[in-house]
Design brief:
elongated, 2 domains
Length: 302
Amino acid sequence: MPIQWFPGHMTSARKKAAESMALTDVVIEVLDARVPEASSNPMIRELRLFRQRPCLKILNKTDLADPVATRAWLDYFNSQPGVKAVALSCKKPGDVARVPALCQGLAPHRNDATKLLRMMIMGIPNVGKSTLMNALLNRRVAKVGDEPAVTKNQQRIDLSDKASITDTPGMMWPKIKHDSDGFMLAASHAIGRNAVIDEEVATFLANLLLARYPALLVARYKFDLAGLDGVDVIEAIAKRRGYRLKGGDLDLEKAAITLLTDYRCGTLGRISLETPETRRAMLANASPAAEAPADEETASDL
């Protein structure tokens, strides 16, 4: 079943973001390093291009992602005009301390005492925007949680006498065009659980891991993968862990949540669900209907 998730508060959030974009010098887009393109909101790109704003793309959670894939993504994004991409962890103060200088490099005209550098943090839910905001200010000013859409209001704070930063709520877009993107985002916990079925998401993840990271599955769960598909992997985890319902049937939901949690926390290892190469292959195989633009407002409408 295709996954779509667009809570009501996001409509007002994107309108406020569009207004603030006019008063912003650099957009900081926080991405999940495991799914960099799937976690890039096309509306953010549309808004910043409409205002001709440069973008610092932060591939966050890089400690959870495959380093080979991350290097490929950095090359991909850094080849785009007006974009600087870096891989870091928003939980590491040393990494975060680099951010203002990187933004300054994208806005050299804002480099004196009379012109405040105005930065704006954007991204989809649960990619680490609030963690970045708190680390930059070295105090807790934004709510942080492991459920998507914790932040619901925009706030602007002076970072120093030379820079300000605006934190925005996580924003999805009205229609996810590619089913695989929805499943990758759900697996990476960027979509609320009320919009997904854990067993379906875990089956998608298991099939992807079988194709790209089978050794990590074997190392974690200690069973033979020969002849297994995604559904079989969930069943095998339930059997291996002894997950049973009262009547004796396998507790597949618990097994699905175990796989998803092990991926999200990095227990399975460093995993990227997409690379520039797999992305190109996915788009090449997408149907014309899937490639049609979503029926949504344009940046100028916002």
